[in-house]
Amino acid sequence: MKNKNLKGSLILIAAALIWGLAFVAQSGAASLVPPFAFNALRSFIGAFVLYLFWLFTGKKETGRFFPENKAERKQYFTVALICGICLAVSVNFQQFGIAAYPKGVSCEARAGFITALYVILVPILSLFFGKKVRLPVLAGVVIAVFGVYLLCFSDGISAIYLGDLLIFLCAISFAAHIIAVDKFVGITGGVKLSILQFSVVAVISAILALIFEADKISLSNIISAAPQILYLGVMSSGVAYTLQIVGQKYAEPTVASISMSLESVFAALGGWVISGNALTGREIFGCTLVFLAIVFAQLPQNA
């Protein structure tokens, strides 16, 4: 089991690295492509890449993407809408938040660690569905609150950026999305659900882009941001998702979730190494506490 956990962890850490560096790509594209248009493009690419993955892996087993039964097909569309809308809200809050940070702010680190709070928010939101909150999660909440205070609030209200608030809303909607996926993934299967929800995100974001961003969309800027868009679509949505599927076959759930939570650490490192956005000592300590809170929240009750 230990060897399997190690193998699974290494695979999942690779996925976390890809997701962490995605924050750098999002930051780089924020000044070139408006948020709705950016998410429409990355989601179209992501859905296409995952569909190709399904063609080469899942089609041999299932044959058809949609079931023949009308009732089951209706379920597919209902699940796609629920999960897709939750994900669309999440990724657009996230991109608007990253775009809202002023220059010189370590937006990758702040966005990465605040987004990662969904790990703690999921069990908190689950209270509304009658589920109990485990003691490690409560400990994680306390640690996370102090960590976020150091990261965002320690210099008073003036140190809170609009981006922080938007990213926190993103974390809440991501938590709702995870709960929805957990409830509905059994109906479609993981890969199909991802294809469906990315397709919904692409359509919703494209419509909103045409309504609100038509005068801001520039073909030359899209071409300039093509590396970031392709990275998000191919690597973050396609490759990392596939690595997650493979990694979770080997690693135990707790080991898997802790490995994937390294995404926030890689986001901070990527922002520092690639974008040159350094953190202050207080912000580093705040990030460390948030990461510890994430780890605590994923420990079993008897840990």
Essential attributes:
single chain, 303 residues, mainly alpha, 0% strand, globular
Instruction: Give the CA-CA distance, first to last residue.
Output: 18 Å
Main β-sheet: number of strands, strand sense, barrel status? none
Give the class from helix and strand content and strand pairing.
Answer: mainly alpha
Beta-strand percent range: under 5%
Radius of gyration, in Å, reads 19 Å
What is the mean pLDDT? 85
- In total, how many beta strands? 0
Give the tally of structural domains: 1
Poorly predicted residue ranges: none
Task: Record the SSE blueprint.
Elements: H1 2-30, H2 35-57, H3 59-62, H4 70-100, H5 107-115, H6 118-126, H7 135-153, H8 162-188, H9 190-212, H10 219-224, H11 226-250, H12 253-260, H13 263-273, H14 281-297
Q: What does this 3D model show about the protein?
A:
- The chain has helices at 2-30, 35-57, 59-62, 70-100, 107-115, 118-126, 135-153, 162-188, 190-212, 219-224, 226-250, 253-260, 263-273, 281-297.
- It starts with a helix and ends in a 6-residue tail after the last helix.
- 50% of the residues are buried.
- The chain has one domain (2-297).
- The model has no long low-confidence stretch (mean pLDDT 85).
- It is built from 14 helices and no strands.
